[in-house]
Amino acid sequence: MNPDASDDEVPSLVEPETNTKVLDDQHDEIPGLVTSSEDAPQAKVPITIVTGYLGAGKTTLLNYILTEQHGKKIAVILNEFGDSIDIEKQLTVSDANSTSAQPAPFVPLANGCICCSVKDIGVAAIENLMEQSGLFDYILLETTGLADPGNIAPMFWLDDGLGSSIFLDGIVTLVDAKNVLKSLDEGLGDEEKIEERKKEEHDEHGPLLTTAHLQISHADVVIVNKTDLVSEEELETVVQRIRSINGLAKIKTTTKSQVPQLEGLVLDLHAYDEVTDADLKFASKGHSHLDPTITTSTITFPALSRAQVDNFDFFLRTILWEEILPNSASHQPFEVHRLKGRIPVQDGNLLLIQGVRNIYDTNELEAEAKAENEGAKLVLIGKGVDQPAFNESLLATLKR
Ligand SMILES: Nc1nc2c(ncn2[C@@H]2O[C@H](COP(=O)(O)OP(=O)(O)OP(=O)(O)O)[C@@H](O)[C@H]2O)c(=O)[nH]1
């Protein structure tokens, strides 16, 4: 059930060159490169985004973390999104300063953590709050139940490259084992979205893309909660379905959101700065396609010559920014939510690729031992990703 990538050795980073690229919808020209700041990376605070539909167990998870002794000072931020959520009621842990007359943005909690609620989850708003809060070493951001993590993640990922004091560690999605299949099949909770779709004149959307799909396809870890409400067989069906949507995510089953080993499952995921061979191998094992909307596809190809590196970059830009397959007759619409790749170059270097929606990042590691023997792997999670057509398009583009 679990890729168990944590045991695998992490490739040593040899002064990587980082190019983060983003499509700017406002301008026609190809956007320029955004290069990572080399200043004091140790000062940056990781942020984990916690998503999941209403009632999946997000608050229960945060309560669990905030009462555990994990040795970290965590700032929990709840995205209230206009609803007036009373965090002191929502979080049952005791508030050491409850008598304070001053309405402080942060509530100090018993185990040294702090908690606050915000409407705006922009980077600037969060950094601003952080300045007021004093020291902490981790941020957990709980989104509203209907949030699309694909819209939130890029804000934190990109700002990392712009000298922010926070960096995106990963996305954890909670699902309710009892209701998730209904959410995926019927868009449970997505009634407005479905109505909108029905109103559209030319409905060529294909299978329903629900909020549950978006939350699972972007996840680095999926916590399948409320296992006490389903049978073992039902749980296995749920896990298989999630695995077929997202072959890269770790899956953990829980009751009452209890994740005894927080590290690697909620905290310190390093999902945006590591691409391990074990992760990609697991994703490419050929899990059955059980979901009509989202699949995980893997393209494998031989190591690139130095001259092909630019062609490969052109392929990525075209699929992610223009959403078309270069050098291909296929016009099937597609959207890529998450992408990871390890691409050896014949000179011995290794390209590590990360992508979320239309943003991607390439790290080139110098002279990785045996990288060339690995074979290149590109894993894509998304809608309408036709593996043979993608494979053909990539090979045709590399030949140019
Ligand atoms: N049976 C069962 N109930 C659970 C489990 N985990 C959480 N609950 C209950 O499910 C309800 C919803 O849990 P929350 O943690 O509030 O869920 P949430 O995702 O934060 O929900 P919103 O804040 O509404 O988005 C609460 O009453 C929890 O006590 C579980 O594993 N099994």
TrEMBL record:
Coiled coil: none annotated. Keywords: Chaperone, GTP-binding, Hydrolase, Nucleotide-binding, Zinc. It catalyses: GTP + H2O = GDP + phosphate + H(+). One of its GO terms (molecular function) is GTP binding. InterPro entries: CobW-likC_sf, CobW-like_C, CobW/HypB/UreG_nucleotide-bd, P-loop_NTPase, Zinc-reg_GTPase_activator. Pfam families: cobW, CobW_C. One of its GO terms (cellular component) is cytoplasm. Residues 1-37 are annotated as: Disordered. Residues 1-10 have a biased composition (Acidic residues). Residues 46-251 form the CobW/HypB/UreG nucleotide-binding domain. Residues 330-397 form the CobW C-terminal domain. PANTHER family: COBW-RELATED (PTHR13748), ZINC-REGULATED GTPASE METALLOPROTEIN ACTIVATOR 1A-RELATED (PTHR13748:SF31). Belongs to the SIMIBI class G3E GTPase family. ZNG1 subfamily. This is COBW domain-containing protein 1. It comes from Decorospora gaudefroyi.
